[in-house]
Amino acid sequence: MSKDQSYVLKAWEVTVRKTQQAKKRANSVFGTVPVAPHTDNDTTNDENDDDTSTNGSNIEEFYHAERVLPNGDYYTGQWSDNFPHGNGKYLWTDGCMYIGEWYNGKTMGSGKFGWPSGATYEGEFKSGYMDGVGTYTGPSGDAYKGQWVMNLKHGHGVKSFANGDAYDGEWRRGLQEGQGKYQWSDGNHYIGEWKNGTICGKGSFVWTNGNRYDGFWDEGFPRGNGTFKWDDGSFYVGNWSKDPEEMNGTYYPSGNEGNLDWDPKDLFNNLSEYKICSGERVPTLPSQKKLSVWNSSKRIEKPRRMSVDGRVSVGVDRAFEKMNMWGTEICDGGAEMRKELDAELMRLEAEGIQSLKSSPVPMKLPKAGRKQGETISKGHRNYDLMLNLQLGIRHSVGRQAPVASLDLKPSAFDPKDKIWRRFPREGTKYTPPHQSTEFKWKDYCPLVFRSLRKLFKVDPADYMLSICGNDALRELSSPGKSGSFFYLTNDDRYMIKTMKKSETKVLLRMLAAYYNHVRAFENSLVIRFFGLHCVKLNGPTQKKVRFVIMGNLFCSKYSVHRRFDLKGSSLGRTTDKPESEIDSNTILKDLDLNFIFRLQKAWYQEFIRQIDKDCEFLEQERIMDYSLLVGIHFREASVAGELIPSGARTPIGESEEESGPRLSRAEVDQLLSDPSRWASIRLGTNMPARAERTMRKSDCELQLVGEPTGEFYEVVMIFGIIDILQDYDISKKLEHAYKSIQYDPSSISAVDPRQYSRRFRDFIFKVFTDDN
């Protein structure tokens, strides 16, 4: 296909979009002409009214249809443009039935869905999903009334179980989370905080006999500070845990001695009888039901057009296939449409529309980069330093006892809480002999970082094996902008960064706030720290090397094809590499970004909520110059290496072959219906999304976010907030003052933390949006 032909094809697609917009404008101005209902038997009148139908082709027609579909399904209701549109009833052969509102072939609006088992859902639908406010009644007696998002209970809702239990409170992704009250069939109830479907946080358990427990919970049992009260006024205050060694407290009688023989373990034995009912699962989801109209046996299957870049055409052929869904032929109407398109193309050329010729060229997968870093082997300038680091970490992690509790005393965060240990070559009572040079090893706040590793579910043995195993570390080829060096473990799970003294002070200063933040928000996007250490080399210089151990954001089963470092500023925010040298390891910046990322609704809501929380935390700690590091894995590419767009959303029921590669409805439903699988993804890690390509205006070089093109790609995303150790010190204030004289103050990175946080969020919320 020549360039001129591709321009014509683009022009055709633009014209179709313009024509559809013109129809909407016409309907909004003149209104919709009412059309008398007719059935399939009205063929005579249709044949005699060719002129009328042609002249009225710009008016969207609604009429009543009654169809028995090829596979035995049945539909009756309003119809428009070969789709159920308006109010209608669809009956599947397996006994499922939907009665309600439709929009272009999708259940959209208010409706009722029934299953052959007797289960029903009545409420709001969106794009085939139970989405909005609705009531589900199960066949065994379970019932839920409340808010839904994409087939999952999400928001406030009330659920009554068949066994007599009931829950009234907040839900997230199909599980109880937030504030809620659960009442068992015997009248006992819990009211308080929930997490992932279990009692977790602060709450109260009240018995019908007047006894109650008020305090903290974890996984359905008391954990931490709490008070048990009897109905006679006596109470027990203390620290609660399943581990008897961690239990301690004091009993306060009310005047009588009736409860002196009471054992706190009795409370755990009693609570073990109170289970949270999981309830019944929703049968086949409404969004999984295919409509036979999209797979009619009369449909004319046409060979799919392949463009010169190897991509499958989703434009011209598919538009005309849609007109033949019921086996009708395009005759006069099709010829008339082609005449209108030709006229529209001529008009576009006459107006000198140049945007068609500047349309984006097909995207290719970036060339694969080599495995990052140079292996530190014997003879390397930092070989001894690597051995010292591995010896120190093996000593620190190996000698530590398990963390008893995540509740730490303020003294644990004291910067003076550090341990020095000398490592002579011959070894000591506490250190092994080694082949490296003699050095001293310092552990900063060891109890805090031990607790962080437990909080982040890091196994000590795996941690040591990754960093201190037989495989050597890899040093990245060049230091970062700050002058720090980076090292990667061989399995890519951990990154080690050398630290300036000022950065170490910042981390120690904010360590208590950081610990409380990541403990309170398990989905926090801020970088994870696992250890802070210092190696002091012997010799005349007594050189100190401080370093922090972090999680490697891009350690994933998915290969990362594109990497972006996003701050929301424009000055100097482009890569300095020529196009020929950019590969999958290249870190691109704000002005290199050519996508808008669209997340599923529930994930997007959690994303904006977590970004707000993380930015508030960093602002309070006077931190600036941080960035969102984003990695993209493209799901589909041709053999030649071109990325395959997914196109716009396709009607429910189209197969992947028909609609182009995308995250299929079945995959989405399987993901959403299985909370454990949903939870395994985690915010910012291996998240399915759609990336819409953007283009910047040629006359606006510093446009941060380009214009959407309507070209979508199915991607898997990885992202997190990095570089959180730069406070707004005197050097940054001077940098801001100096650059503000030369450049627009809003374009530079060094700004006040409050302004930085606001600008960062404004930019990120433009780049990430709801895939609605």
TrEMBL record:
Keywords: ATP-binding, Kinase, Nucleotide-binding, Repeat, Transferase. This is Phosphatidylinositol 4-phosphate 5-kinase. One of its GO terms (molecular function) is ATP binding. Residues 43-52 have a biased composition (Acidic residues). It comes from the Eukaryota. Residues 23-57, 646-665 are annotated as: Disordered. Its EC number is 2.7.1.68. It catalyses: a 1,2-diacyl-sn-glycero-3-phospho-(1D-myo-inositol 4-phosphate) + ATP = a 1,2-diacyl-sn-glycero-3-phospho-(1D-myo-inositol-4,5-bisphosphate) + ADP + H(+). Coiled coil: none annotated. InterPro entries: MORN, PIno-4-P-5_kinase_pln, PInositol-4-P-4/5-kinase_C_sf, PInositol-4-P-4/5-kinase_core, PInositol-4-P-5-kinase_N, PInositol-4/5-P-5/4-kinase. It comes from Cardamine amara subsp. amara. GO terms for biological process: phosphatidylinositol metabolic process; plant-type cell wall modification; pollen germination; pollen tube growth. GO terms for cellular component: apical plasma membrane; cytosol; pollen tube. Residues 377-768 form the PIPK domain.
